[in-house]
Amino acid sequence: MSENFSITRHGRVALVTLTRPKQLNALNSTLAAELIAELAPLDRAPDIGCFVQTGSDRAFAAGADIKEMSEKSYGDMSGMDFFAEWEVFAKFRSPKIAAVRGFALGGGCELAMMCDYILAGESAKFGQPEIKLGVIAGIGGTQRMTKLIGRAKSMQMHLTGRMMDAQEALDCGLVAQVHPDEQVLEAALQDAATIAGYAKPVAMFAREAVHRAEELPLAEGLLWERRVFHSLFGTHAQREGMAAFLEKRDPDFRKD
Ligand code: HXC
User: Fold this and answer.
1) pTM of the model
2) What is the ipTM of this complex?
3) CB-CB contact of 5 with 28 (8 Å)
4) Fewer CB in 10 Å around end: N or C, the chain?
5) Residues contacting 200, CB < 8 A, separation 6+
6) Mutation choice for ligand 1 from 23, 28, 157, CB with most ligand atoms inside 8 A
7) Is the shortest distance between the CB of 130 and ligand 1 below 6 Å?
């Protein structure tokens, strides 16, 4: 167990809560290493179907830990490939939902964007303020935000370092929905339970296919999607899902 986060199970859902509220859940190297080590086996576990990533009322995460980074040199950062491990988190195949209240800044905003989608509480504030510290985003901000909200707005966010509120984030497609703060975690857990109720391999492929839309030319993406669609006709999930529809009953995906 880590003092930087907790992991609790809600049926087939793993809820990951950052627990450094005094530092506004700033992300340090220990937290990253421990979090990824603990989540890796859960990602592969057949009885975990979805992750929910959250923080505290005041902050989802206010970025990488500035105290930890402040004395580092170029040699230190490049030598240890600082924060490269977050790509492992991004690549977990289980669907991940971010439930964001308060600040999601710098690495915190990037952590939210590494999840497959974001639900925001009304207090959520997103930003990439690294330029104010004399650096730029380092765990995907310039890339993922640009793909999510387009160049003009992403450029403005990275160059000015300003924050956007939950409504603006909804309007530009950074987040999927906005909920009252006290309901956003519950909404994320409900979505997660729905997702975890489906066959895990099918949810993993659906997630991967959507991400491929950002990575592949359209023709390649369409072909990849169609081939995966065909391959699912070799699964219990397809037989069960379609049989249950025709027999007017709920499907039972527990064998997947
Ligand atoms: C370390 C942090 C922190 C951070 C806040 N704290 N953010 N500590 N790293 N990223 C600490 C403060 O030092 C303070 O500690 C306590 O949390 C509360 O913060 P305050 O500043 O007192 O609160 P407030 O006035 O409400 O301002 C909130 C805030 C501000 C707007 C979020 O804290 C802020 O601007 N934080 C930095 C945000 C940022 O620049 N993030 C990007 C980091 S770079 P004490 O001990 O004084 O109470 C990054 C790069 C990612 O993320 C890429 C890496 C490869």
Assistant:
1) 0.97
2) 0.98
3) no
4) N
5) 46, 49, 94, 256
6) 23
7) yes
